[in-house]
Amino acid sequence: MLKNVLQFTAASLLAALPSLAGGSAQNYCATSPNSVGPGAKIHWSGPVTLQQGALTVDGLPPHASGFFVYGLGQQQIPFGNGLSCFPGASWILARKAADVNGACTLDVLAEGDQDDLRFIQYGVIASQTLSVQYFYRDTAAGGAKFNSTDALLVQF
Q1: Is the pLDDT at 78 greater than 90, yes or no?
Q2: 20, 45, 71, 86: which could form a disulfide with 90 (CB 3.0–4.6 Å)?
Q3: Averaged pLDDT, 82-94
Q4: b/e per residue, 106-145, with b = 16+ CB within 10 A?
Q5: Which CATH number is 2-155 given?
Q6: Cβ(81)–Cβ(131) under 8 Å?
Q7: Is the pLDDT of residue 109 over 70?
Q8: Running DSSP on this structure, what letter comes out for residue 122?
Q9: Among 87, 47, 50, 46, which residue's Cα sits nearest to residue 69?
């Protein structure tokens, strides 16, 4: 009986996840120079689905601490040493540091904050375009000592 309940629960969860097959991910917003180069950029790796997709960032300072955020809408306003690329409310998708090469990869479904993924998983913001960005510490750059990547529009 318990086995059947567990199987049903897992199947229900996967069925509740929106399918992004046919979805798209496109960069927008400027990136700003950081202490190691012309700036960090965010990308979507793999199929544009939550079940298989990953967010990747490159061009970061080695071991820089940071976090992936998402929100709705688009804008470009000064924020730290870079830009905030979406207005209003935002949610932290995950906190994750760069590796020794200044890169960071996030398996969205496996590593994303489950409390914040609920808005996507249960269709609360389905049929929306999400803006995703990575904010990171860059103390060697001076100024505000933090920066941001460009942004990624993910269309459901």
Answers
A1: yes
A2: 71
A3: 89
A4: bebbebbeeebbebbbeeebeeeebbbbbbbbbeebeeee
A5: 2.60.40
A6: no
A7: yes
A8: T
A9: 87
Pairing of strands 41-45, 54-58: antiparallel
Q: What is the DSSP letter of 102?
A: S
Question: In this prediction, what percent of the chain has a pLDDT beyond 70?
Answer: 76
Q: Which residue has the tokens 């994303």?
A: 112
What would the two tokens of residue 27 be?
A: 């960069």
pLDDT of residue 122: 56
55 secondary structure, DSSP code: E
Residue 150 CA to residue 123 CA, distance in Å, equals: 26
d(CA 108, CA 94): 8
Maximum separation of any 2 CA atoms in the chain, in Å: 60
Which two three-digit tokens encode residue 96?
């994750």
Percent of the chain predicted with pLDDT > 90: 53
Q: Work out the mean pLDDT of the chain and round it to a whole number.
A: 82
What is the number of residues in the chain? 156
Domain-wise residue ranges, the chain: 2-155
